[in-house]
Amino acid sequence: MSQSNEHKKTGRRYSREFKAGAVKMVTHQGLSQTEASQRLGVSVSALCGWVQQLAPGGQLTDQQMQTKIKQLEQENRRLKQEREILKKAATFFASESR
Question: Is the distance from CB of 31 to CB of 71 less than 8 angstroms?
Fold first, then answer.
């Protein structure tokens, strides 16, 4: 594989270095698996599998777990806000079309 294509998927195959870097984004940098997968352009399920395979023992440390919980709580709040906005928009547009 050439150096310029090292991090691009070729037939859904990624180098071990790419996978290790992706796992570090989750385990060391504290990104959620969803955020890391979006940044890298890979599926969440693939990244989840890499984390299970490559993370030490497949488990996060207590500090990493706390960071992940905080991130998931933030993401959950954001998603709830987005859902409420969409509900209000749907109600508004439904009333406008009558």
Answer: yes
C-alpha pair distances (Å), 74 with each of 41, 78, 79, 88, 93? 22, 6, 9, 21, 29
37-43 mean pLDDT: 91
Q: What CATH number does domain 3-96 carry, 3.30.160, 3.30.70, 2.60.40, 1.10.10?
A: 1.10.10
pTM over cut 0.70: no
Distance (Å, whole) CA 64 – CA 12: 28
55-79 confidence digits (pLDDT tens): 766 566 677 678 778 888 999 999 9
**Pick from 48, 57, 7: which is nearest to 36 by CA?**
48
